Amino acid sequence: MVVAAALAAGAGCSRPTDTSPYPGACSTLTPTVWVPASNSTGVPTDTTVRVTFDDYPDPDSVGSNTLLLTTGFFWVPGIYGVDLLNKTAILRPWRALSPNLSYTLHLAPALHSLSGCPAPDTTREFRTGDGPSGASPPAVPAFADIQKIFDTRCGSGGCHLDASAAGDGCLATPAAGLSLCASQSWEALVGVTSQQESDLLRVTPGDSGRSYLLRKLIPAPPDPCPPSSASASPRAPPSTPTSSRPSPPGSTAARCSSGAALSGSST
Model pTM? Predict the structure, then answer.
């Protein structure tokens, strides 16, 4: 057992323990796409800064101390978020950037993945153009569109709803107390604490990255352990889902991130 553990650690793997993050080798959370691109010019002044990684960035580690936009000596404040589905950290400046001005984006190692692995300490520069792009924000799907997903994906197992039952398929005792039938799904999901991960809500209004529903659905990153190490596991927090779970439709993440979840409307 000791030899197997040593071999697993040497292969970039670690084993679950009571310590969090788990001990073991940790690969750098590597940026794969920068928006705006490095050294780009003519960037619209209404741009949203995005950094896409090769693993899921931890929303609790994304902020002004880890993803900082500056121009000269001035810091650009904004709203931070994470698109877990696309493994992307997001910064939306509070107001339009100044035209024809150079900016620097600073990435710090304190920004880390859900597995606890740090990003590199690096910077990227870009220069704005004459004005905004004028592009419209993406449309937010209605909750009724999400309910259709529940009906088709969750309706046959009899766990959270029964699409074949009379009425809207509500169950008297749904699994984990989570009912996904049309008349109860909103109240069962939005603002309700997860039974499996008590520090997360099932759906956090306006923040898909901190919504347990999305974390439950996203696939786990590729397993770095060699196939022969059946008992080894990649470095991961307790809430990391299994790789067998399918990726959810983009509308699920969009709905979690939308401000519409605050209104209490089902349309």
Answer: 0.72
